[in-house]
Amino acid sequence: MTGKTFAEKQLSEKSGRDVRAGDYVEADIDVAMAHDITGPLAFRTFDEVTDGEGSLFAPEQTVFTIDHHAPADGVQAANNHNALREFAAEHGAHQYDVGDGICHQVLVEEGHVGPGDLVIGADSHSTSYGGLGAFGTGVGSTDLGTALATGELWFRVPETKRFEVEGDLPDAVYAKDLILKFIGDVGFAGCTYMAAEYGGSTIEDLPIHERFVLTNMAIEMGGKAGIVEPDERTARYLEAETGSPPDIDVEDPALHSDSDAEYEAVHRYRAEEIAPQVSVPSNPENAVDIGEVEGTAVDQLFVGTCTNGRFEDMQVVADIIEGEELPPDVRMVVVPASGAVYQKMLETGVLTTFVDAGAVVQSAGCGPCAGYHQGVLGDGDVCLATANRNFPGREGSMDSEVYLASPATVGASALYGEITDPRRVETKRFDDVALAQGARP
Ligand SMILES: CC(C)[C@H](C(=O)O)[C@@H](O)C(=O)O
Ligand code: SF4
C-alpha cells in the first residue's frame, strides 16, 4: 500500500476514518465562510433546515464578509449587507464590514485559518487557504447553509495532481507566472475535483503571499483544493501576521504528503525556464509567454483581487511606476485586498505613488473583478489585470477583453499603455514575513 497525500490525510483526520482518493466521507468543518452575495442565500437554507430556530455549529468559527459589492452599489446590495449584518449579530458570528476587505484575505489576516484546518467558503476561491496548509474549498450556498447548522459536510476524497518546481525563479517571474503556466499546461478542467499540490525547492522558497496566488487559482483548473504543505515559513508568517504562532506543529506528518504518496500525475518544471506569462482572453488556460502578446494596447490596468491585491503586490507595481505618469489614454484602477493592505499603502507612501502616477485607488474589496462596480469595462475595452479570471464579460461588457498577468507585468505595462515584458524594467520581490516584522520595503 502506498503512502497518503495531504488531502487523503486531512480528510481521514476530519472524518475519523482511514480514507483514500475516491472514498466519500462526512467531515467535520473547522471554519465556514460566506460573503455578501452567497451569505443571504445560505441563511435561507439554514433557516429551512433548522425551522428558523437554529444555532450555528460554532459561531467562533463562522465568518461573514461584505466585500463583493462593498460599499453597496445599489439597493439590493445594501439590503444584502443588512441581512448579513443581522444574521451575524443574531447568531454571534464574526462579521467584517465595508472596507475590511476580500473574504480570503480577511480570514487569513485575522487569524481565522491555520494549517490543518478544513475550511469551506461559499466562494470558489476558497482554495486559497491551502497557502497556509489548510484544506480549503468552495461550496454552494445550500451546502454552506446546511453545514452552518451541522458543522459537517460530505466530500469525495480527491485525487492529487502535483506541480513540482525546482530552481531559482528568473528576474520578473513570480508565482502568478507559475500558476498561469500550470493552468495553460493542464487546461481549465485539468484538475477537476482534484487537489492541486505545489512543491519543490522553488515553491518552498516562496513567501506566503506568493503561495496564496498558486492555491487561489487552483480552481481555475477545476481544483477542489490547492495545497502548499506548511513549513517554518508558514509558522513565522502566522506569528508575524496575527501575533501568535500556529497552535499546531507545521512539521507534523499529518500535514505532509508521504514521499511514496500516489499522485494522479506529477508535472515537473525548472524555474529558470519559465518566462512571464499572460493569459489572453477569454479563459485563464490561454496562457502564453509574454513575447507573444507584447505591444497589445490596453485601456485599463487593474491591480487588486484575492489573487494579487496584497501589500507586496502593490509594492511591486509602485516600485515600477514611481515617479512616472500613466499615458494619458490609460486608466489604472487599484483596489487593495483588505483595509489592512490599504492602511499599509498609506503608511509606506505606496498609495501616494499610485495617485501621483494618475491611478485611482479605491476602497478595499473585490472591486471590478467580477464586473459589479468600481471600474466596469465598456464595449471594446481591453484590460490587463492582476485578477484570476478573464471569461467573456468578466469585468463588464461581453465585448470587452481581459488579459491576466502578474503585478510586475501590469506595472511595466502601465508605463507604456501596452502589454510590456517586466524584464524590461527593474523589478523587486518582497518577503511578507520580513515586512510584517517591520522591515522597510
Ligand atoms: C460571487 C461569488 C459566488 C464568485 C465566486 O464564487 O467565485 C466570485 O467571487 C467570483 O470570483 O466570481
Ligand atoms: S476578488 Fe474576484 S475572484 Fe476574489 S472573491 Fe472577489 S470577485 Fe471573487
Automatic annotation (TrEMBL):
<keyword id="KW-0432">Leucine biosynthesis</keyword>
<comment type="function">
    <text>Catalyzes the isomerization between 2-isopropylmalate and 3-isopropylmalate, via the formation of 2-isopropylmaleate.</text>
</comment>
<comment type="subunit">
    <text>Heterodimer of LeuC and LeuD.</text>
</comment>
<feature type="binding site">
    <location>
        <position position="366"/>
    </location>
    <ligand>
        <name>[4Fe-4S] cluster</name>
    </ligand>
</feature>
<feature type="binding site">
    <location>
        <position position="306"/>
    </location>
    <ligand>
        <name>[4Fe-4S] cluster</name>
    </ligand>
</feature>
<dbReference type="GO" id="GO:0003861">
    <property type="term" value="F:3-isopropylmalate dehydratase activity"/>
</dbReference>
<dbReference type="InterPro" id="IPR015931">
    <property type="entry name" value="Acnase/IPM_dHydase_lsu_aba_1/3"/>
</dbReference>
<keyword id="KW-0028">Amino-acid biosynthesis</keyword>
<dbReference type="GO" id="GO:0009098">
    <property type="term" value="P:L-leucine biosynthetic process"/>
</dbReference>
<keyword id="KW-0456">Lyase</keyword>
<dbReference type="Pfam" id="PF00330">
    <property type="entry name" value="Aconitase"/>
</dbReference>
<dbReference type="InterPro" id="IPR011826">
    <property type="entry name" value="HAcnase/IPMdehydase_lsu_prok"/>
</dbReference>
<keyword id="KW-0479">Metal-binding</keyword>
<dbReference type="GO" id="GO:0051539">
    <property type="term" value="F:4 iron, 4 sulfur cluster binding"/>
</dbReference>
<dbReference type="InterPro" id="IPR006251">
    <property type="entry name" value="Homoacnase/IPMdehydase_lsu"/>
</dbReference>
<keyword id="KW-0004">4Fe-4S</keyword>
<keyword id="KW-0408">Iron</keyword>
<keyword id="KW-0100">Branched-chain amino acid biosynthesis</keyword>
<keyword id="KW-0411">Iron-sulfur</keyword>
<comment type="pathway">
    <text>Amino-acid biosynthesis; L-leucine biosynthesis; L-leucine from 3-methyl-2-oxobutanoate: step 2/4.</text>
</comment>
<dbReference type="InterPro" id="IPR033941">
    <property type="entry name" value="IPMI_cat"/>
</dbReference>
<comment type="similarity">
    <text>Belongs to the aconitase/IPM isomerase family. LeuC type 2 subfamily.</text>
</comment>
<protein>
    <recommendedName>
        <fullName>3-isopropylmalate dehydratase large subunit</fullName>
        <ecNumber>4.2.1.33</ecNumber>
    </recommendedName>
</protein>
<dbReference type="InterPro" id="IPR001030">
    <property type="entry name" value="Acoase/IPM_deHydtase_lsu_aba"/>
</dbReference>
<feature type="domain" description="Aconitase/3-isopropylmalate dehydratase large subunit alpha/beta/alpha">
    <location>
        <begin position="24"/>
        <end position="417"/>
    </location>
</feature>
<dbReference type="GO" id="GO:0046872">
    <property type="term" value="F:metal ion binding"/>
</dbReference>
<dbReference type="InterPro" id="IPR036008">
    <property type="entry name" value="Aconitase_4Fe-4S_dom"/>
</dbReference>
<dbReference type="InterPro" id="IPR050067">
    <property type="entry name" value="IPM_dehydratase_rel_enz"/>
</dbReference>
<feature type="binding site">
    <location>
        <position position="369"/>
    </location>
    <ligand>
        <name>[4Fe-4S] cluster</name>
    </ligand>
</feature>
